[in-house]
Amino acid sequence: MGLGGNWRTVQEAYRKIAVVYEKANMLATLGNVDRWRKEAISLYFKLDGKTPIKVLDAGAGPGNMALHIKAEKYVVALDVTPEMLLLNTVADDKVVGMFEYMPFRAKGFDLLVAGYSLHAAVDIEKAVAEFSRVAGYQVVVSIGNPDNVVVRKLLLFYTKYVLPRLVCIVAPKEICNEYKKIYTIVKSIPTNAILREIIKKYATILVFKEKGLGSVYLYIARSLNAS
Ligand SMILES: C[S@@+](CC[C@H](N)C(=O)[O-])C[C@H]1O[C@@H](n2cnc3c(N)ncnc32)[C@H](O)[C@@H]1O
């Protein structure tokens, strides 16, 4: 389950939106985009207490997720879009690659963080399996699909008709049109309840929180193979 055949169309968008990326996200989430990244990272530190040394930022983009880990660390940024990685000034190493086929050994990282990227996977289950294979813990914030049917319909309406127009306030037309693809994402991803079941096959969920009526979720999980 994931974007499957729609993946390539959505992927083109990341190349085009790179320059206005964070401004547009602020509008799309009504100002919450970074607050939710910070919350996820700080919840991890409250739970675990152990400082991660080797960190993998999956779908790192400009690095806005790893940025919030204040401790001493070595960060590898993995992303399939080179244009996004070019903007990344946070990582110590950058790797162009895909979630579903990570070029890393098992348990190579203490912590994997993924900010607003899991929803874009070709195959979400394969991505979660890989997250759990390569890292002891995972902290993920992503676009969700609300379990409640009415809320889901409202979100689909928002992503189809309101969001692209909002983004036009800060971006040229050809870029804000790319935000229409969030509608395709929401239509293709599993509901939040199904996602939890997928995660549980590979990891123990320590925290799962919904934001914006379920349009965004954040979770912290310990991989089943973690030492
Ligand atoms: C919306 S950006 C998120 C960037 C950053 N993590 C943040 O918190 O804002 C999503 C990123 O995930 C990357 N991505 C999408 N699907 C991917 C996949 N299957 N494997 C690796 N990276 C992927 C995209 O190229 C894009 O840079």
Automatic annotation (TrEMBL):
User: What lineage is this protein's organism placed in?
Assistant: Archaea, Thermoproteota, Thermoprotei, Thermoproteales, Thermoproteaceae
Keywords of the record, alphabetical order, are: Methyltransferase, Transferase
The source's superkingdom equals Archaea
Swiss-Prot/TrEMBL GO biological process terms: methylation
Entry's SUPFAM superfamilies?
Answer: S-adenosyl-L-methionine-dependent methyltransferases
In the record, what terms sit under GO molecular function?
A: methyltransferase activity
Q: What is this protein called?
A: Class I SAM-dependent methyltransferase
